[in-house]
## 1
Amino acid sequence: MTSPDADRTVSAAHAAEAVAGDPTEPVEAETVEELVEQWEAEKPPAAGTASNVAAAVVVGALGLFGLLGSLDLGVGSASSPGPGTWPGIVSVALVVLAVGLAVAAPRTHDAERFGQTSWLVLLGLATMVGFALSVGSVGFEVPAALLAFVWLKVLGREGWRTSVVGAVLMTAVFYLIFVAALGTPIPHLF
């Protein structure tokens, strides 16, 4: 058992060591309060009400676009669902969530402001669109490998080896599951 004086001596020595150490290295928080304070200081700036409403509008537009597409496919009925049933249900859920986002926009303060790293989301979306457009003509293997590589290397900032090996392995696993084991009718090369 240590005395309170010994604990103070250790804490003082630790504080002196932190001050004397590398000033570019962050000092670790010792208490929950210090950790919360550190997180608050490091978090990105919050988005305003306009940004939150814009996010709600985008989600709502995606939901409406999906709902129109599912109606074109035909939703069928409860006893005989059509090919647009599940996309329609998901689209309605998106519209409902968009309304909830819009209503909560003035009171929401934990959303991040749109910044330089936000463009990565658009890059991810663009690669998904490219994947969807190319699968029908060249099969899913090459677009899936390219998509996985871009997401690992560019979006995930992984190394070259991890990105290449990961992309090949993911594509092989999806091929084995969906083409070989389940016989899913998707365009494929092999």
## 2
Amino acid sequence: MARSNRSSKNKPRSQSRRRKTRAKSRVDPKKFWGDPEALPSVADVRVNITTNPVAVVKSLGRPPLSGQQNASEHYFTAVYERAVNLGAALAAGGDLIEAEDLTGD
């Protein structure tokens, strides 16, 4: 008959079992991120802020949430508008657009 390990189940494992450590390999940052000289200059980048952030999502139809379509559309719209606003703020912070472009016309 096999011995029962009931008494050892509640005890913490001993420190004799150690995790295998992986050797850390050095990654060349230039190989990983690519050549920074190949990136386009900031002057070549044009950022457009959309005035209707939910257009593409609404073109897909109503969310398939039975009985919750109206509420879910409201919250999804709020999330999309917030994402566009944060993206616009980041673009203004990175000098990709003028701060005046953020104000409504």
## 3
Amino acid sequence: MNLLLICSIAMAGGTATEDTKAWVSSLAQYGDDTRASRNTPWWTGFEDPSLTIVIQTGLQQNPGLEAANLRIALASAARWQSLSGLLPQVSFEAATQQSPTDAAGLSPYTANAPDYSEAFQSIGTLLADVARATGTDPSGLPDFSGGQQTAIPDTYRQSSTMLKSMWAIDIFGRQTLRTLASSKNLQATRLGRDATMRGLTGQIGAAWYDLVAAREQHQVVKRQVQTAQNMLEVVQLRYEQGGGSALDVLQQRQQLAATAALAPLAKASLKLAHGRLAVALGQPPSADLPPSKGWPILGPAPTAGDPAQLVDDRADIQAAVRKLERTSLERAASFSALAPTLILTGQIGRQYLTFDETDSVDTWGLGAVMTVPIFAGGRTHAGIKAARVARDIANIELRAIALDAVNQVESAFAIELAAAATLNARRTQATAAQHALNESRTHYVQGLAPYVSLLAALGANQGAELALLDAERARVQARIQLHTALGGRWRPQSENSP
């Protein structure tokens, strides 16, 4: 019977996965029939050694991931506890009890027995009187007093040493179902840890390139301040030579002050980005972090592949499938609570009885107990209803997670395309703005262009440089978001999974 249960559960588990794949395929508006390979950690394609260092550090020290590993240990212990219900239970028992001897007279076999001692004593007294009256020696008469009596102890002790065993025979598969449910819970917990790990790598990657952007922005603002300062010197010189006006000098001073005002914000953004990444790595906000070498050169975007592959590649979907399977098993176990239970018992050992001396005897016993539930105040039927509701909730949560995953992938592909196009446009803009600034400076120094054109070119160039930084960051983060949305079955080589 248990073998049939296991086979039926295995078929049910496969059905849940296949049903989810079919549902995802009907929803998705991306992909093709090919199967993409997602067995390699996504950050290896960025060829950024510092990114690899921070991700490996985070996988080793992040508190959330450590807690996820501990939850696996907890689920594993729960599975072993459930499995123990299918095995015989053996225990050694040593017991002793001290009781008053008078209490032994309250035995139902002796409490109502008549007391003939006084009658025998009266017979003895009568015979002694007759002997004295007839001159016979009374010493030869029978002794009806009971002779010399031994003092009885006030207490006695009963003891035993027993090796006992008990085995609940799982006739209707109740404990088997619960054990299988515990195994599914362990699988779901492990997959939940994998989902946390893969989400963490995306979070760390995004935080790393936020820090890279903050460092780049800090350097760009410093260069812009220096450029504005150099430009002020040129304008001042032109004014002194009679080629410019005092208004030009004042406007350039205003431009320098506006640019310098960006420096404190850039410095604060750098500190904030540094702290966010350090905390994600499980380190203090002031911890030392690796140096950065600018932006990575991104290769082609990962292929979409078959949408049904998302169910296999996303650990959070797989975890939700295992939770659904667990609740289905728990629902089946709740029905088996209506069935009888059979428990076999056995014991072997020795019993001891102590008055003045200790007597002992070997003993053993075998037994069986069958319990048929009749009335439990509605608890069993309430448990069946609760298990059904829990299964329905798990099914809804699976659909919600799968739906959100499909939306994440489709959004990530759209953002990837938009970020790539935006970056190309920003690069063109930055190049044109730099050329315009160079030409405007040359023309202004030669007296061929007014200062207002130089001022406009300077402002446009500064804005284009900062916009290009934002586009570079958005481009990299869009690629990380796409990798995170598509998932994968990779695992870092340094990770030892429990």
## 4
Amino acid sequence: MMKYSRININSFINAKSPRPKIQKRPFTNKFITPYNQAFGFSLIELLVTIAAASIVMAIAIPSLSSFTTKMRVDNKISELQRLLLTTRNAAINTGQNATLCPLQADNTCQDTTDWTGRIGVVSIDGLIKEREAIQSGDKLDFPFNSVTYNPSGQLSNNNIGIFSYCPKDFGDFSRGIDLSLAGRTYLSSDINGDGREQGRNNNNIECS
């Protein structure tokens, strides 16, 4: 039979196994920038950026100009419609005629068909409301020198027609307001789908 020698367990317990050595990394400060590191753009990158920005601006500027022109026309047409409504309501509420017309310096009506300057609502009590001159170069056409409402809310001077607002260099954005004998106002719209707005007579809104 084979003889086995006794193993001293304590020798295994007390034995010290070699520990792996830990290699320390050299200290580096991430906030210290090497002197040879370059920043900024190269000349080629700068030229490419300028070219790209120029293309974007060339595309964006006409669109922005069209947008601002449409907004201006819409605002002026809405303002004019409110003035007509104010004139009609003033006549009904006061029981006296009220007139929308181009204004003189003393806030009275002047005898002219030029509606591009100051216009206002005038009654027997004087000026009720006014609108400043439109932007230079734009046009606002109306064939008569005034619009007068009587206490029934109808036109007393039969000055029926179309207020035509035409922005400078953007004739396709022209809009108008049809004025009926009953004193009602009707906004123009693109009836035939040609991209331009027409009045109730189906004619395109244009200015002379």
